[in-house]
Amino acid sequence: MTAGRRVAAAAVAALTTAVVRGVLDTSPPGGPVAWTRTNHRGEPVSMLEGPAVAAGLLAGSLVGASTARGGLAAGIAVAGAAGFGLVDDLREDTATRTKGLRGHLGALAHGRLTTGGLKVLGIGATAIVAAAVARPAGGHAAHPVARAADTLASGALVAGTANLLNLLDLRPGRALKAAGLTAAPLALTPAAGGVAAAVLGAGGVAVEQDLAEADMLGDGGANALGAALGTALVLGAPRPVRLAALAAVVALTFASERVSFTEVIERTPVLRDVDAWGRRPAAAPGAPGVDVAPGAPTA
Predict the structure, then answer these.
(1) What is each CA distance from 68 to 115, 133, 264, in whole angstroms?
(2) pLDDT, tens digit (0-9, with 9 covering 90-100), for 164-188
(3) Quick check: 167 and 253 in contact, CB under 8 A?
(4) Rounded CA gap, 217 and 223, in Å?
(5) Residue 288 falls within a domain, yes or no?
(6) Which helix (H) or strand (E) holds 45?
(7) Run of H or E residues at 72
(8) Rounded CA separation 74/68 (Å)
(9) Shortest CA distance to 78 belongs to which of 56, 97, 54, 59?
(10) Domain count, the chain
(11) What are phi and psi for residue 268, nearest 5 degrees?
(12) Is 46 strand, coil or helix?
């Protein structure tokens, strides 16, 4: 893939994100109130960034993908993650709020399908389809069982990365910074460069308003961003790297059920400095600032 194509992918993603965000601002579906949530400071913030970023990722990935299969795989993964994420954003039952992967799977086990549970199932299904379409880097193994296992592992990587980026979207700019740092080296690879460049383009446009605490990704945007990153890994990384990435994603996901990422970041000087870059000063002691999911009531 040429450098020009990567630049085109980033530019198209950035332009699409900016244009869609502007259009949504003038005429948000369902009205502004439907897209307004309370952030970690107890202040109102708009989730319109999410669908704008998802649109940018879709457009940029289609322009930048090195193959038709790669473009289709990225489109399926991003559209599925964004769509099911937006359902959870806009249709979640706040009266019986269920949080965490364990909570949603537990509800499913008891016969109750939450919007979060629907998101888990929907993103998982579209991620597997995307992985099957992508034909991961290094090719499929010859044996049918090995091919199926490879596809399932790659699908789990796409879905797991989508979920992990959402878990990071608890402070302004955090998910966008993590996505950018991960996408930057992937943008240099031949097979994944276009999709990764789309992540950089869309995120680059969104980060200013995100850091200003005017916008937030929400589930729709964060899931889409993570799905794009996971697809880039599937397209560009050899099987051992994909499996190592999947192990890391699974470990971090399970860790999130027991520890607060925000507390870990605050205790680690380098992470704390990167996390705080470009953001307003932290809330004063006693002010709202607990580690809550986007849209959840603050303490």
Answers:
(1) 32, 10, 41
(2) 999 999 899 999 999 999 999 999 9
(3) yes
(4) 9
(5) no
(6) strand 44-46
(7) helix 68-91
(8) 10
(9) 54
(10) 1
(11) -110, 110
(12) strand
In a domain, 148, yes or no: yes
pLDDT score of 298: 36
Would you say 222 and 55 are in contact if contact means Cβ atoms under 8 Å apart?
A: no
* CA gap 214, 209 in Å, rounded: 5
Q: Which residues of the chain have pLDDT under 50?
A: 285-299
Residue 223, CA distances (Å) to 16, 119, 163, 202, 212 in order: 18, 10, 6, 14, 21
Q: Please give the pLDDT value at position 145.
A: 81
Output the pLDDT for position 294: 43
pTM of the model: 0.86
DSSP string for 91-160 = H--GGG---HHHHHHHHHHTT---HHHHHHHHHHHHHHHHHHHH--TT---SSHHHHHHHHHHHHHHHHH
- Both tokens assigned to 219: 């589930």
3-state secondary structure (DSSP) of residue 23 = helix
Does 297 fall in a domain?
no
What is the predicted pLDDT for the residue at 110? 61
Residue among 159, 20, 141 nearest 76 (CA): 159
**Tokens at 49, concatenated:** 């960034």
Q: Give me the phi and psi of 110, to 5 degrees please.
A: -100, 15
DSSP secondary structure string for all residues of 206-218? HHHHHHTTSB--H
Name the amino acid, one letter, at 123. Answer: I
Predicted local confidence at residue 91, as pLDDT: 84
Range of the domain at 71: 3-35+46-276
Q: How many CB atoms lie within 10 A of CB 171?
A: 24
Check residue 292 and give its pLDDT. Answer: 43
Q: Per the domain annotation, does 231 fall within a domain?
A: yes
Q: Are 74 and 225 in contact (CB under 8 A)?
A: no
Cβ(154)–Cβ(136) below 8 Å? yes
